[in-house]
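Allow me, if you will, to draw on your knowledge of protein folds for a short while. A protein sequence and the structure tokens that stand for its backbone fold form the material at issue. I would ask you to consider whether the tokens describe a fold that such a sequence might reasonably adopt. Thank you for your consideration; the sequence and its tokens are set out here:
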Amino acid sequence: MKLIEPSMAYDKEIQDYRREFLEAESSMDGCGSLRRFERTEDWLAYLETCKQPETVPDGQVPATQYLAVREDGRVLGMLQFRHCLNEYTAQYAGHIGYSVRPSERRKGYASQILHDVLPICKARGLDRVLVCCRVENEASRKVILKNGGVYDATVTEPRRSVRLERYWITL
């Protein structure tokens, strides 16, 4: 499996990924607002605006989107790496959001996805990253801990009233 930036070459896989999450009514964490975009080209255009400080939408921080692609071309997961933190992301989102498609969960992919992005974060000049998960998300907590996460605090995100655990991973 490798992390790559999304492109139209993965249009069918991206659409299958999106459809699987919508049908499962599952949270699409780390997907760069994919839920809102029916067409891959529109999502890719949006992601392009999110990369640079000059064009990132208000209230957001520059971020790079990745697909976790298996050797056979199947998109197993997605990850968004936020290059820096603002007031909101420093409390409730962190540097990294990720997800694994529902049909591919419990196979170790999330741990590998998080592991594989850490050198990218370090290359961007970070010495540690913040990763958050819902209190009830035991699987995500295990992924974070397996990658060296150290518990920081439990907070309540005010917009959605979601309780989150915050973890720092030293790079």
User: Anything to note?
Assistant: Strands lie at 2-4, 63-69, 75-82, 96-100, 128-134, 150-157, 162-170. Residues 2-170 form a domain with the Aminopeptidase fold (CATH 3.40.630.30). The mean pLDDT is 96.
